[in-house]
């Protein structure tokens, strides 16, 4: 004999189905409001609602003719619809024994007609209802029309749930739902209302990658699932969104201040770190951002939150507030990347300037350093200190070095045709040294222009050489074997060591200007530079001092045995024509 079904179990499963849809307490939605407006027009009644039956209340996802968002469930006709799953018609609430003492009847409502909102799995979420202030009879056409409207409302509910609105791992509303809800806030709050949002990141991108490599995606899924209850508890009933692999977003309660909300988040961070089993493998960070309802696009808000949560990785507290100033710097960075990519593809904006290197013993200039300059059509001259570091950290490094090399080799050809024999030095980044065809491209360029390999020197920083020392050394050895000269740039600021100098097949060591400029005033700096020069000579390297700006420093370097000097004392970086005039004068 089959035992009778427990009504309490049925209600629990119904409530669970309702809560999984993440509809309760969400912002108004135009998609649902169209249906309720249609209902009032179709029936000629002042009140209509999409009413969801929660454990102790009727909450209105959409409503017309009603100011409040919810009413008690007790003796509510919509609750009866949810419990029975059947259409309910009450021609006159005051004549009905069940509802004559209900809150609706007390508010003046006399007529009720409600059709059930039933999921595909058979759970009744509530009702699509219309209400009137006068008694009214119900026809079969009325019943059919309301059932059609209920089907439309239910289709909208399931459509939102099915079409990318719920994350399958966490069961939380995802980024698409967040975008929709933030946009819909403008329907519930006055435009410009200040709001707060927070993004919680369970791990940095590197930590996620390491976890994936070691433990696989199932482990990451478990971390996410385990975090959901804690997120919900902290949100205090507010909505939590799963917007990235291990990133969640929540909106602050309406009465929160930045101080209170950030303080609560910091307290939660401390508690969750102690309780989290993966605290030694992952780093939870929080980013906060202010936004104004209706004035900031949801995707821009997400970008701001992502920026803040990324910056929080370097914060001791693990929490950062979005900074418009930092954001402007990031925006500038990406603008520069895009603009430089464009400038590389068309002539006119990029050019080379050449700074001479002077033999300290003869005064002759036998070599110059090629320096990239950029004149933007709108911004004017852009500082190399701003765009060169960006180049070296992006995929533009290959294309930029290719452009500089080609321009330098063309200039060498022009100088040789004019009877000027100079060596040109070109700066090379760490990324270039890791390109498998870099050596071949350099040697092929020299051969194509008919230039001797010794007419080109490549300057490499210590940090670039030490990023992948084995690959760097192999590339340098192939270049040296081909006749290209190699210089270690900015010596003294990176990984200086005897073993390092001994292993790298360099011809020249360039002492960084930070040491050279302090020689005249500091005896210890003079001693340090003298030691660098002697050490480099003992290992077979020529020495160039950068940043020479006075005759006094030039004399000190000459006395210490330095071979060449470069700096404003001799000449600033010059265009080819200006350099030719400078050489003629010397």
Automatic annotation (TrEMBL):
Transmembrane segments: none annotated. This is EAL domain-containing protein. PROSITE patterns: EAL. InterPro entries: Cyclic-di-GMP_PDE-like, EAL_dom, EAL_sf, GAF, GAF-like_dom_sf, Rev_trsase/Diguanyl_cyclase. Residues 333-586 form the EAL domain. It comes from the Bacteria. SMART domains: EAL, GAF.
């Amino acid at each position: 004999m089959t035992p009778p079904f427990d009504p309490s179990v049925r209600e629990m499963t119904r409530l669970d189905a309702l809560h999984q849809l993440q509809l309760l307490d969400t912002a108004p939605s135009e998609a649902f409001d169209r249906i309720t407006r249609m209902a009032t027009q179709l029936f000629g009644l002042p009140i209509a609602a999409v009413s969801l039956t929660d454990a102790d209340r009727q909450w209105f996802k959409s409503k017309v003719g009603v100011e409040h968002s919810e009413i008690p469930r007790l003796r509510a006709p919509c609750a009866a619809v949810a419990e029975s799953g059947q259409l309910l018609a009450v021609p006159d609430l005051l004549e009905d024994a069940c509802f004559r003492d209900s809150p609706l009847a007390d508010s003046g409502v006399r007529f009720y007609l409600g059709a059930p909102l039933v999921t595909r799995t058979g759970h009744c979420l509530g009702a699509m209802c219309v209400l009137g202030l006068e008694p009214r009879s119900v026809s079969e056409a009325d019943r059919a029309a309301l059932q059609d409207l209920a089907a439309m409302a239910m289709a909208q509910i399931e459509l939102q749930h099915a079409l990318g609105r719920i994350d399958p791992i966490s069961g939380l509303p995802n980024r698409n739902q967040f975008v929709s809800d933030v946009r819909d806030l403008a329907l519930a709050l006055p435009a410009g209302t200040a709001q707060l949002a927070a993004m919680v990141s369970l791990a940095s991108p590197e930590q996620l990658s390491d976890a994936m490599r070691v433990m696989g995606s199932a482990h990451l899924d478990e971390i996410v699932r385990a975090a959901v209850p804690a997120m919900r508890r902290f949100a205090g009933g507010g909505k939590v969104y799963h917007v990235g692999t291990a990133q969640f977003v929540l909106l602050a309660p309406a009465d929160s201040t930045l101080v209170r909300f950030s303080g609560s988040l910091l307290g939660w961070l401390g508690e969750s770190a102690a309780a989290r089993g993966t605290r030694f493998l992952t780093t939870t960070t929080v980013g906060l951002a202010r936004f104004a309802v209706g004035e900031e696009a949801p995707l821009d808000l997400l970008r701001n939150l992502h920026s803040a949560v990324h910056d929080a990785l370097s914060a001791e507290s693990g929490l950062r507030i979005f900074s418009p100033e930092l954001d402007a710097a990031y925006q500038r960075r990406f603008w520069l990347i895009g603009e430089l990519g464009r400038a590389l593809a068309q002539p006119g904006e990029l050019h080379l300037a050449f700074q001479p290197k002077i033999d300290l013993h003869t005064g002759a200039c036998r070599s110059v350093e090629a320096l990239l300059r950029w004149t933007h059509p709108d911004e004017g001259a852009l500082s190399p200190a701003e765009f060169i570091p960006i180049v070296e950290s992006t995929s533009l490094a290959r294309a930029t070095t290719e452009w500089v090399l080609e321009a330098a080799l063309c200039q060498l050809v022009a100088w040789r045709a004019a009877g000027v024999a100079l060596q040109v030095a070109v700066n090379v980044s760490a990324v270039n040294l890791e390109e498998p065809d870099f050596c071949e491209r350099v040697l092929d360029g020299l051969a194509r222009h008919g230039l001797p390999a010794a007419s080109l020197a490549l300057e490499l920083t210590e940090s670039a050489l030490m990023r992948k020392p084995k690959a760097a050394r192999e590339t340098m050895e192939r270049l040296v074997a081909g006749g290209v000269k190699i210089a270690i740039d900015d010596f003294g600021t990176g990984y200086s060591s005897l073993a390092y100098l001994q292993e790298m097949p360099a011809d020249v060591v360039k002492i960084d200007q930070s040491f050279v400029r302090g020689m005249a005033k500091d005896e210890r700096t003079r001693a340090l530079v003298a030691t660098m020069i002697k050490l480099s000579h003992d290992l077979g390297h020529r020495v160039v001092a950068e940043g020479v700006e006075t005759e006094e420093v030039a004399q000190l370097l000459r006395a210490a045995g330095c071979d060449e000097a470069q700096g404003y004392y001799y000449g600033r970086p010059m265009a080819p024509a200006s350099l030719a005039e400078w050489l003629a004068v010397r």
